[in-house]
Write a structure and sequence with these properties.
alpha/beta, 5 helices, Rossmann fold, 40% helix, 5-stranded parallel beta sheet
Length: 126
C-alpha cells in the first residue's frame, strides 16, 4: 500500500459531532474531509470519491437518504463504504440494505474509530 492515506468524508450538520467523527476517522488512519449540508455532500462525494462516507440522514438542503441512494446508483462509487448515522431508528432500519453500516446516535468516538479500523485494518498499522 502506498503512503497516500485513504479518504473519508464526514457529512454531518452538527459541528460538534462532525469534529468527533473526524477525529475518530483520523485515529483509524484516514485523511478526513467534512461537509455540513446535503448539496455540499453531493458535490464533494463526486469530486473526492472517498472510500468511506460517514453520512447523517437529516441534513440541510438535501436529505442524507437521497445522497445514500445516489451513491449506490453511481457506478464510480460502488465500492464506497457508507456508515449511516441517525437518531431515528425507524428510518435507519430500512436503510440497512443500502448502507454498509448503520449506527444510532449517540455514537461514541471509540465506536466509530473501531468500526473504521475494522473496515480497513491495514491503515491503523501504518
Amino acid at each position: 500500500m502506498s503512503n497516500q492515506k485513504l479518504q473519508a468524508l464526514i457529512v454531518e450538520d452538527n459541528l460538534s459531532l462532525a469534529e468527533i467523527f473526524k477525529e475518530a476517522m483520523q485515529m483509524a488512519g484516514f485523511e478526513t474531509f467534512q461537509v455540513h449540508d446535503g448539496l455540499e455532500a453531493r458535490t464533494t462525494i463526486t469530486e473526492l470519491r472517498p472510500v468511506v462516507v460517514v453520512l447523517d440522514l437529516h441534513l440541510p438542503n438535501l436529505d442524507g437518504e437521497v445522497i445514500l441512494k445516489e451513491i449506490r446508483q453511481n457506478p464510480t462509487l460502488q465500492k464506497t463504504k457508507i456508515i449511516v448515522v441517525s437518531a431515528n431508528s425507524r428510518q435507519a432500519s430500512y436503510l440497512t440494505d443500502l448502507a454498509d453500516f448503520v449506527l444510532l446516535k449517540p455514537i461514541s468516538f471509540r465506536q466509530l474509530r473501531d468500526l473504521a479500523t475494522r473496515l480497513y485494518p491495514s491503515l491503523s498499522k501504518e
